[in-house]
Amino acid sequence: MTLNTPANADERLIANWRTYADRFISSDGRVVDNANHNVSHSEGQGYAMLLAERLDDHDTFATIWRWSKQHLFVRDDALAAWRWDPNSKPNVTDYNNATDGDLLIAWALSNAAIRWKVADYADAARRIADALATQVVAPSRFGSILLPAAKGFGPTDQRDGPVVNLSYWVFPALERLRALSGKADWDAISRTGETLIRSSRFGPRRIPTNWIGLAGNAPAPAQSFPAVFGYDAIRIPLYLAWGSSSVRDVLRSFPPLELAVIDANTGQAQEVLSDPDYQAIAALAECVRSNTHALLSKLDYNGQFYYPASLHLLSLLAARHVNSGCLE
Length: 328
What we know:
The protein is mostly helical and 328 residues long. It contains 12 helices and 10 strands. 51% of the residues are buried.
């Protein structure tokens, strides 16, 4: 295994991945959200596939992908149903997709096809990319956008639609989609995301909200959702840090990151994101923004809950990709 990081960082990341896989990935490949009634999401399957590929764990990758194909890819197109619930019969009750989950899975499959020379992975990645282009790429007055799902967020679905979620702009995945599908201008979609992140600064904190309406002349907090920066938007700095140099420039203008659910209208924190694994995103952002290396290397992996644990490990991958000095 060749990882472009210091040896001690490699060992730490590999050990953390093994702990993550033991805790959150079932023997048949289902990634379990243990803080949310043990449901599974296309997003979680994508996170774990990406981690497995980057750490050269082909067996785990293949197992996760096999479960995902069987249980989530049940729509008429090549997109995944967004949620699988072990407590429901049938397990999939909402066949809508989640665009970020599909992006993550396509990105991981494309990477895996190159690493392990598996043509079936490349074919599946291409089918997902083509389906995203036809099902969720849409026009707006700000440029081409990604709808959060194939249904429910367009101008006829929301009174201030289209409504977007800026944490669904997985910039490094969009960069990979350029080689997969010519059915959309993925660079233009990335540029729209950059524009929206720069301009979606609301309230006294000048922060984006999780959900944003694009019906007006400027982005605004979406009317049908709480006007908060929270569990979704906390991922925006991660994907900015992981993107190209122009995308990372957007991070340098991003407001200082507070690990909390924040009311955009008042600027007041409603809930602290207390799990220590969230700190990895803040440390990554600080490293990219100011070239301060020490913070991320000093953090310990907690690994108690699926979502913050995933973001911690993804932050380590992003740091390795962008600037291995962040891990020294």
